Amino acid sequence: MSLFSQNLLFASLLFTLFSGICALGGRSLVFHKLSQGLLLVSGVLGMLASFKVLLAPQTVLYFGLASSEFFPVFQLDPYGAVFFLLISLVSFLSALYAVPYLASYQETYHLQSLNALVATFVLGMQLVVVSQSPMAFMLGWETMSLASFFLVVSDRSHESVKAALLYLVMTHLGAGALLIGFLLLAQGFFFADFEQLAALAASAPLWILSVCFGLFFFGFGSKAGLVPFHVWLPEAHPAAPSHISALMSGIMLKVALYGFLRVLLFILPPIGATASLFILGFGLLSALYGVLYAVVERDFKRTLAFSSIENIGLIFTMLGVAFFAQSQGLEGLYQTALIAAIFFAIAHAIFKSGLFLASGLIVRAVHSRDLEKMGGLARQMPLFSMVFFVLCLAAASLPPFAPFFGEWIFFQSILQNFSSQNLFVTIVLILTFAVIALVGGLAIFAMVKLFAISMLAEPRSEAAREVHEKPRAGELFSVAILAFLALGLGLYAPTVLSLIGASVLVSSPAEITVGSATIQPSLIFWLLLGCVFVVWILRRIFSRTAHERIYHGWDCGQPIDASMEYTATAFSAPIRFFFRLILKTKKTLVAQPVVATNPWITTRTATVDLRSIWMDYGYVPLGRFIIGMAEQVKKIQSGNIRFYLLLMFLTLILTIWVAL
Amino acid sequence: MTNSLFSLLMLVLFVGETLTCFTLMRLPSLLRFYALSSVALGGLAIGLALEGGGVHLIPVAVAVVAVKALLVPFVIKRMAERSGASLRLVSSLRPSASWFVGIGVFGSGISLALHSPLYQMNNMIQTPALLPISFGVILVGLVMMIIRKDLLSQMIGFLVLENGIAAFSLSALGGIPVAIEFGVYSAVLIGAILMATLSQRVQNLLGTHDTSHLSELTD
Amino acid sequence: MSLTIAVFIQGIVVLALAPLVTGLVRWFKARLQGRHGAAPWLVYFTLLTTLKKENVISESRSWVFRCVPFVVLGIALFLSLTLPIVFPSGGIPQVDLFVLAGVLALSSVFLVLGGLDAATAFGGMGASREMTIAALIEPTTLITFATFASVAGSSSLQDIFGNGITVISHPALLLSFVALVLIVLAENARYPVDNPATHLELTMVHEAMVLEYSGPYLAMLEYASSIKLTVFLLILGNLVGAGLLTTVVIGSFALALFESTIAKMRFFRMQEYMSIAFFLALAGLILIFII
Fold first, then answer.
1. 3-state SS assignment for residue C70
2. What is the per-residue burial (b if ≥16 Cβ within 10 Å, else e) of A458-486?
3. Which of A609, B139, B163, C170 has the smallest number of Cβ neighbours within 10 A?
4. In angstroms, what CA-CA distances link C271 with A374, A610, C124, C193, C263?
């Protein structure tokens, strides 16, 4: 049995590989189904392997070829097992989803390459999580990045290509930073493994550690989607096929988080207060910026992408607080905040994947990603809308779902640590508390907007009026599983939290009763359910259910139609107004006279333009500067051979002179 | 060193003719002086071989001389005649200035080489005196390629560079292995043919051999 | 007495009192404005008759429309059961301030969805405004409760409100009390945030969301808002240290007086209101640790 379990990990990776190879078999749907089936098996095996490692923390699964110095050993330790479980789960569900979903998109996507690339992508992520040395890590990282680049380009439209190129640039800048960081730490010896790196880092000078921290922060932060390195996320995630967006947003961002924590927890020595405040600051910035843009966005998948940015910001805030607490000596806060961050990351993976999978179904039904063209889908797809509703409530961090308990743990631990002794710590914690509370409130707004505009009221376009492509069994099932998991994770929060604690913290895990407060999610859930049930019973007793009439809505006696109901732009208008200094929306109103004789009869066109301040004030000026410099340097390209020869001569003389 | 006088004579001839090449403005005389400097180099090689006892090097040297002194100038002159190129070459410098520049470059090349670690380890090389001179010749060839405006004399400059490299290897190693020698010289020959063909095309297209007109990319 | 009986009795008391509180507020307001006013116990009859009326349902609605009144009233019932407002030990200890904030947010979410489901512009407008108010008041709510929790030493509502913490336990709590009053006004759709008695749709926030409901559903929603108002008034009363009946009477009078003297704010000036509330709460929290 142990041989079997030892090989579970290897088998899981092998099945992913087979899935990729099988996908290239041929055009027919059989190969598509076969490759997704192999991916399913790989997911199941991966989940089994992770459970095995998590539940018996002493076991460590590994495989490696002959112990040559250059071939990396892959090992699944408890910390990696948490993330491996996530990867296996979401890839399992996305494979289940992809079988009917891609079958309906056969003309748009080239199924063979798409499936092969998905398998490569998943393989890359699995390799990252099981690698124990920088070389293996970067191998997996690059596989993941390149595969996802090609996945984003899948539908070969102009905007997908632009988005994918932006993504490629950012991800390679990040990968370069990571490589430099690893090499700096390893002092040039690339074939060290993480333990040797940790030993080297313990004796490294401070400036090297600071530079490495900055590089790792940029590398992992840009992949995770932290502001201001996030510019690729809102472009790339909507452009990819929906189950790929689920994989990217659900797991790839978590793999970046895994890498960041692997470096901070297991390699670098404890970072000081400045670095942790740095993480905290960027986390808060990302959370605030992400949620504001999620609220005002009108594209379905872009809203979800910005919501991902917000959640990653939240996770990084929790990490920042954890490391800040560590630097101030507050061990309890450190441990609980760290556990809360990972718990929230797991919850985010679950509900965000579910939301993106659901978005695929909605976009397919309405043939558009624009929220302003949706509406009334709850009447056409009632079962699906219930599942989607559960996911939206979970995404809004409302009780009794999982993300609420992650935030609960975080807020509780902060609250316990307000004290009059250490005023600086208290002020930092209070400000974090306030900003996260604001972000939470706005996140609810964004999710309500998403659900209400797409599902409720009357359809706002012809396509939404008659939906021909209803969700099929496999698709609905995978989304429903994720919705149940979002609820279940919340109900079983205490167990999961202690499991995470055991796997992440090197020392003994803290109790998950924070102070005198105990977390009992099931009590709250059953109490809420009970109250609603009592109300239902009472209503049946005290009034007649049959006494009702279907009629128009309250329309003041006027004939109203679907164009008069609230749109997403209108719904988010107050937030756009209240935060106008940050959002910098550009509103232009053009009035054109229709008749020459009467200037008062005009056609008016109103355009509301959402600007990205990071692009406008950050990236575009930087890009212009770099291109300007390049134009200046281009002047030496005169075309004259003799000039080039002269340059070569001068270089030669200079080199020899310097060398001597 | 019985042949040392011979070697010295060859060395002086080599250097003198190379420097003269730098300044000549007519194609036939340029080619003649290049041929003479190659012959001098070949003679130098034979002299050193006789000193060092590698008699088998003599046929190699003779073949080399044949290629560089006879074949290459012949090819170039034929091509130049066929393309109807002007035999008056164009340079950025007037002859008198180019004398000064040539000697200056040669001198700086020698001084640079004198500082090199290779020269410091005197015991390793066969002919220590030749090393700085060969480096000087290399630089002279490079600068000749820069200074001259037309294609054919740039090619000659490249050939002078080749000569310098051959001299360098001669001084540092006592001769390059035969196979590499032949490889290098066949490259030189083929290079000469190619450049001659190219210059003919350039002449047909642009009516001049001046390479400063070759500065725009075509579609 | 045992916990379950205490909770049960507390729930009954709050459920019974809730319509009376609404009626009292209206009666006081009428008297202050020089009108005779309806009797305070008329609200009971209004609710009972509304329950028996015909339920007119919009044809544009979906399944969410029907769920909303049940969930909102269920959450109001949850509030009345779990907050220690009548008996000091009458709350459920596992419900703490974050759960309270989350549950209140849940009820707002359902109301908003109900407003949007009717496919009318009124519902949408009310929903948009209500969601903005709920989102912007959330940091203030959490900070105010956190202030009280810091003084009480625990975050369980049982310990905060049932423990005998009053406004004078700590000088900074006065600021937090004012912030809490502002929160209560915002949560319950009272002046200056919203006018609960308006019939002009463009000035409605809460009323616009329930505009589409009729019959039993309307009764449930009205009852739910009465329960919420009662619960919050009793919390405020607990903090001041008053008894049950005193709180009900004096609280209703104070609210009616306040509403008669002040005008409703323009919605687009809400950020000022929210900022004042937020900074009062923040100041209260910070001062706890400085003083």
1. helix
2. bbbbeebeebeeebeebbbbbbbbbbebb
3. A609
4. 31, 21, 20, 11, 16
Question: B34-54 as b/e, with b when 16 or more CB fall inside 10 Å?
Answer: bbbbbbbbbbbbbbbbbbeee
Nearest to C282 among A397, A434, A527 (CB): A434
Q: Look at the alpha carbons of A260, A265, A270, A276 in this order and tell me if their dihedral is positive or negative.
A: positive
Is residue B30 within 8 A of residue B21, CB to CB? The reply is yes
Nearest residue in A to B215, CA atom: A639
Burial class of A411 by CB neighbour count within 10 A (0 to 12, 13 to 18, 19+): buried
Contacts of residue C73 in chain A, CB cutoff 8 Å? 535
pLDDT tens, residue by residue, A609-623:
888 888 888 889 999
Residues 6+ apart with CB under 8 A from A366: A373, A374, A377, A461, A463, A464, A467
Q: What is the gyration radius of the CA atoms in chain C, in angstroms? A: 18
ipTM of the complex: 0.95
| Residue A595: CB atoms within 10 Å | 9
Q: Residue A225 has which token pair? A: 């989607």
CB-nearest partner of A645 from B146, B215, B216:
B146
Q: How far apart are the first and last CA of chain B?
A: 61
Residues 6+ apart with CB under 8 A from C189: C196, C205, C206, C207, C225
Given a contact cutoff of 8 angstroms between Cβ atoms, the answer to whether A283 and A342 are in contact is: no
Binary contact (A438, C139; C-beta < 8 A): yes
Report the distance separating Cα A166 and Cα C210, nearest Å. Answer: 47
Go through chain B and tell me how many residues it has.
Answer: 219
Long-range CB contact pairs, A75-78, < 8 A, 24+: A75/A130, A75/A132, A76/A9, A76/A49, A76/A50, A76/A129, A76/A130, A77/A53, A78/A53, A78/A54, A78/A502, A78/A503, A78/A504
Q: Within a 10 A sphere around the Cβ of B207, how many other Cβ atoms?
A: 10
SS3 C159: helix
Nearest to B45 by CA among B36, B58, B33, B32: B58
How confident is the model over A205-263, as pLDDT tens digits?
888 999 999 999 999 999 999 988 999 999 999 999 999 999 999 999 999 999 999 99
* Class of residue A400 by CB neighbours under 10 A (exposed 0-12, middle 13-18, buried 19+): buried
Distance CA A613, CA A620 (A): 10
Measured CA to CA, the distance from residue C228 to residue C197 in angstroms comes to 17
Strand-pairing partners, residue A590, are A605
Q: Is A638 on the interface with B (CB under 8 A)?
A: yes
pLDDT > 50? residue A574:
yes
Length of chain A: 660
Q: Per the structure block, which two tokens stand in for A565?
A: 């109901």
Mean of the pLDDT values across residues B21-41?
86
Are A395 and A447 a contacting pair, CB within 8 Å?
Answer: yes
Q: How far apart are CA C175 and CA C181, in angstroms?
A: 10
Q: How confident is the model at residue C1 (pLDDT cuts 50, 70, 90)?
A: low
Q: Which residues of B touch A (CB under 8 A)?
A: 108, 112, 115-117, 139, 142-143, 145-149, 154, 211-212, 214-217
Which residue is listed with tokens 């988005």?
Answer: A163
Tokens 């779990």 correspond to what residue? C82
Taking each continuous run of H as one helix and of E as one strand, the counts in chain C are 11, 1
pTM over 0.95: no
Give the C-alpha distances (Å, rounded to integers) separating A564 from A441, B118, C122.
Answer: 27, 89, 10
For the CA atoms of B58, B64, B65, B69, the dihedral, rounded to the nearest 10 degrees, stands at 180
Residue type, B25: M
Per domain, the residue ranges of chain B are 4-205
Contacts with A510 (C-beta within 8 Å, 6 or more apart), sequence order: A331, A332, A335, A336, A339, A501
| Residue found under tokens 């008062």 | A600
